[in-house]
Specification:
Layout lengths: L13 E11 L30 E2 L1 H15 L7 E5 L6 E4 L7 H6 L4 E3 L7 E3 L7 E3 L2 E2 L7 H4 L8 E8 L6 E8 L5 E10 L7 H13 L14 E12 H5 L5 E7 L1 H8 L4 H4 L2
Antiparallel strand pairs: 1-11, 1-12, 2-8, 3-4, 5-6, 7-11, 9-10, 12-13
Helix pairs in contact: 1-4, 4-6
């Protein structure tokens, strides 16, 4: 847990900028929902922007990082609350009122009544501003090469066919899944606000979650081979108050690294001092 307390005063100190290339090691599927079905198209299309280009929504990235940190923290069901209780579409996340809960500090929390998985409903009057902002990751069009396009089912995507087989009758139930192909590259950008000295330690959790994501999955169908990703070209920079108030230059902390390099940076003995 963090060193935050109920008496910790918040005052803007600066922003930690993290940028990286997110490359698909296997096909990536982040669904667009059934409202996007087209005649003759895949059963499960990927989300695309207004120009028809696939992208990774910031909400998907942020949710995956939060989920990985929740798993790593071994959080108990009593601290899980329902965001949605609609049958078949339940959404449960971790939320607590503890001032040293680094997950709630990093991702923010809202006041109000929320139903818990176990025990009585929580009634919180405190709101915590989120420190971490995760932006939509656009596709780097140069990563879709001419050789790749020759084997794609669409200009920028492929269609993966799958079968669900009934264990009694052996009847196949085919389905198709649209994916961004392996080799596609997206531009990742995260910004962590530092509102007090204690916030600097939260960068370690962000770096750890990014590193865990490389050995986990992103998007849908992860257990069926989709969504393995890798980070490269990681860059980190610090923009303190003077950057915004006086136009001072940012301080570059890291360039051309991988996820391990980022983790080493934020866990280094001099990291907090460099955010000045």
């Amino acid at each position: 847990m963090s060193s935050h307390t109920a008496q910790t005063a918040l005052k803007f100190q600066g922003k930690l900028i993290v940028e990286a290339d997110l490359t698909c090691e296997t096909g990536l599927h982040i669904g667009a929902g059934k409202g996007s079905l087209e005649i003759g198209g895949a059963d499960n299309p990927v989300v695309k922007d207004a120009f028809g280009r696939p992208y990774v929504p910031g909400s998907s990235l942020r949710g995956r990082l939060r989920s990985l940190l929740e798993q790593a923290s071994g959080l108990t069901p009593s601290e899980m609350v329902y965001v949605s209780r609609r049958k078949g579409q339940e959404v449960r996340i971790h939320q607590s009122d503890r001032p040293d809960d680094d997950i709630c500090i990093l991702f923010g929390r809202n006041p109000g009544r929320m139903e818990r998985m176990a025990g009585e409903a929580s009634e919180s009057s405190s709101a915590t501003p989120a420190r971490l902002t995760v932006y939509d990751a656009p596709l780097d069009m140069d990563s879709i090469t001419a050789a790749m396009r020759e084997n794609l089912d669409d200009e920028l995507t492929e269609v993966k066919s799958e079968n669900a087989v009934d264990r009694i009758t052996s009847q196949a139930n085919p389905r198709t899944l649209e994916r961004v192909p392996a080799g596609a590259r997206f531009k990742l950008r995260l910004v962590m606000d530092v509102l007090c000295e204690e916030d600097k330690a939260l960068a370690s959790a962000v770096a750890a979650a990014l590193r865990m994501m490389e050995d986990d999955t992103l998007g849908g169908g992860g257990s069926r081979g989709n969504g393995r990703v890798r980070l490269s070209g990681v860059r980190a920079a610090w923009r303190g108050q003077s950057y915004y108030a006086d136009g001072s230059a940012e301080a570059e902390l890291l360039a051309g690294a991988d996820s391990g390099g980022l983790l080493g940076l934020v866990r280094g003995a001099e990291f907090a001092a460099r955010l000045a």
